[in-house]
Structures are given as structure tokens and as C-alpha cells.
Amino acid sequence: MPLSKxxxxxxxxxxxxxxxxxxxxxxxxxxxxMPPLLFMCLRFMLAGTLLAILxxxxxxxxxxxxxxxxxxxxxxxxxxxxxxxxGLTHASHVGEGAFLTILGVLMVPLIGRFLFAETPPIxxxxxxxxxxxxLALLALKDGFRPEIGQIFFFTSAFGFAFYYALNTRAAxxxxxxxxxxxxRQRQGVPPLALTTLMVLTVSMVxxxxxxxxxxxxxxxxxxxxxxxxxxxxxxxxxxSARFFFQTWAQSLSTTSHGVVIMIVEPVWxxxxxxxxxGETMAPMQLAGCLLIFTALLVNRWGAVRxxxxxxx
Length: 312
What we know:
The protein has helices spanning 5-31, 36-54, 56-61, 64-90, 94-101, 103-116, 122-139, 148-171, 191-213, 217-221, 225-252, 258-262, 265-277, 283-299, 301-311; strands at 174-177, 183-186. The protein is mainly alpha-helical. The protein has one domain (5-311).
């Protein structure tokens, strides 16, 4: 019996979470061999080039206004990725960092409240105290001494929250009122074109940050052979393939369980970090991560309930 489009979409999104988790591992390996911001520049430049080949028709058809909207999303995403990779560089625990970063999903309704006057669901207000307790357990595991990596990850979560909010609006068709009071339809940016421009913009943002903040010469004088592997794997598997499959999954169905599936990513990261780097979690770390994951489920309870109903 062939799978429905919704089921195909769900399976593809599971693959997306695995690819995203793998990118954490590849990136962690790379930043131990070269400046982190320079790595991000090369990773997103290669990924953006590959995506541009696939999206060339969409890129030729979009308007200047759509292009600028995609670039704005990329600027915010670039800011978030700068702090993310700095967090990855300084983190003592990759799995913990994944749970800190995913807090950006929880912050999206709050960003919508303050930027777009949207009303957050009750589930968000219920989830926030749970997440704060989890965050406190992570920060207090050695007394109140938050690590620099934790601070970078938490800052990146804010950036990702803004990115999620803006990306949704850039992709969707909406109504806009001009200065003369006329209401006009604003076409959404096609997903592949949006992703391509966003990824290339991240490359420029991280490249400029690296040019200002990092020394390049030692890296190119001592370019380790394995570094080519980690850059290529991060760009092709962790970025290009991930976004391609995510776009494909979202095009198949509007009734998939994507909202729930995507928050499983930190679980994959923690498992892969345990297998790859031999990481283990102290009881307080584990409790903090479990509370953050619980907060995400509470925040997405409407979608979680639908998934449970469809399974049962």
C-alpha cells in the first residue's frame, strides 16, 4: 500500500532532523581545525551555490521586493548562525547546546506578540516557566556560572526566533497596505529561492564577521585534509540536502506532523554526540534538557494532540 503524501512528508522531515543533527557533528569537527566564522562562510557559500543551481528558474522569476525580503531573512539568520557557531566552538557539551538552541522555537510566539501584535497561545505561557526551570538547571549545574558556550547558544536562540518569524512571513502570500491606503497582495517568496538567497546571505554575513574578527593566514597555511571533508559534509549533507528535503516535505502536504517532528532534532544531536564524542550528561543536565523538551511539547500541544489522535 503506497504511503500518503502526509506520511511521505513526515518521513522526509524525520530525515531532515537527522541531517540537521549530523551538521552539528560535522561543524564541531571543523571548528576545531579552523576559525569558526570562516568555516561558516565557506560552508554556506558552497551550500548556497549548490542550491542556486537547483533554484535558478525561481531566482530569475522573483521580483526585487521578494529578493530583498529573502535577504533580510538571511541577515537575521546570519546573526543567529554567528552566535551558534561561536557557541559550538566554546561548548563543553554539544547535546546540551542543541537543547539551548531549540529554545528559539519557544520564543517565536513572543516575537510575534511584540513585533506583529499577535496573541500567543495559552500553551506558550504554560511552557515558558517549564523552560526557565530547565534553563536554570543547566546554568546551575556547577553553581551559578553559565559557560560562555551556553551564553552564545542562548543568544543564537533569540536570533533563530526572529528568523523563524520573518521566514514564515517571507514565504507566505499576505496583504499589505501602501502609503495611499490601497491594499495589495504581497506574493510569498518561492521556498527554494528564499532558501538559496538566505543561505548566500548567511555566507556574506559570516564572511564579513570573520574578516574583521579572525586571522585567516594560519588556516590556509596549515589546511588539514580532513577539513575538506567536514566543510563538504556540512555544506552538502547538513545544509543543501537538509533544506532541499525540507522544502520537498513542505510541498507534499499541509497536514504532516512537521511541527512536532522538527523539535526532535536536539534528541538526535544528543544521541549522535554521545556516540561520536562520547558525551554523557550529569543528572542535572539531563533534567534540564528534559524540561526544555517538555516545554517544547507543551508549547506545541495542539499539534502533539493531533499526532497522538492520528496514531491512536
